[in-house]
Amino acid sequence: MFRSVFRCLRTNPVAGQRSMSLSSLAGKVAIVTASTDGIGLAAAQALGKRGAHVVVSSRRQANVDKAVALLQSQSIQVTGTTCNVGDGEDREKLVQMTLEKCGGVDILVSNAAVNPFFGNIMDSTEDVWDKILSVNVKSAFLMTKLVAPHMAKRGGGNVVFVSSVAGYQPMQALGPYSVSKTALLGLTRALAPELAQSNIRVNCVAPGVIKTRFSSALWQNEDIMDEFKKQLSIKRIGEPEEIGGVIAFLCSEEASYITGETITVTGGMSCRL
Ligand SMILES: NC(=O)c1ccc[n+]([C@@H]2O[C@H](COP(=O)([O-])OP(=O)(O)OC[C@H]3O[C@@H](n4cnc5c(N)ncnc54)[C@H](O)[C@@H]3O)[C@@H](O)[C@H]2O)c1
Hints:
Bound molecules: nicotinamide-adenine-dinucleotide
Strand order of the largest sheet: 3-2-1-4-5-6-7
Shape: globular
């Protein structure tokens, strides 16, 4: 059977093209927050390689310029701007610029996160909680609220939140951050039924330890990593591209019947709530 499918694709270029276009995001516009490095940049690359026009942003202009140049060098259609997702004016500016320059928005990947606190959760302060919940959770919701009407106007869209394995099992010393990531699992489920009415799917990815600046304190410490690897089926940490691809999948037609879900991408760590 496989042989006849391959023969058909080889001898029938139209059939081949049709199967390619199933996963294409050509004509789609994707906002990815905090997308000049790490998982956000990998998500922008994965979406862009599937044909989407990606709007990259982060807080520093120099980082935006660097990411735009990199993506352009990979023949990805890209627009960039600065955006602090914790700032209402910045969020509006990001969406407005996207509408003006790209004509609409179809995809939101809410990726930005902070963790200003390491220690016993009972030592965390109100300021720590305000900062973590504002950037990691509230801005994810408020960005969704801003883009949803514009997605609805275009017949639907996709929202993907970036949670964490820590959202399932709080990491020692990362209590408030872990709780914020658990909140995203709830936000995904709370939004999905309401936005399905506008043909907008809402999903989430929960990465395990991925090699980025954010997690460098973990992967640069051999003792921690040796201990950590005991919990993994695949005995290595993940790469940002391994999350970017899953995000692009969730935004594609192949995932057209998936909403309200979180996909864990952890190398086999056990994730249970
Ligand atoms: N790396 C991992 O092991 C890992 C594991 C699980 C989840 N995550 C999640 O993946 C996402 C991306 O992290 P990463 O690992 O790629 O690290 P990263 O450091 O490359 O990305 C986090 C980005 O968020 C940005 N950011 C922070 N506050 C912001 C704000 N107010 N406005 C705009 N941008 C802001 C930072 O500048 C940074 O670029 C985060 O949500 C993180 O919680 C990462």
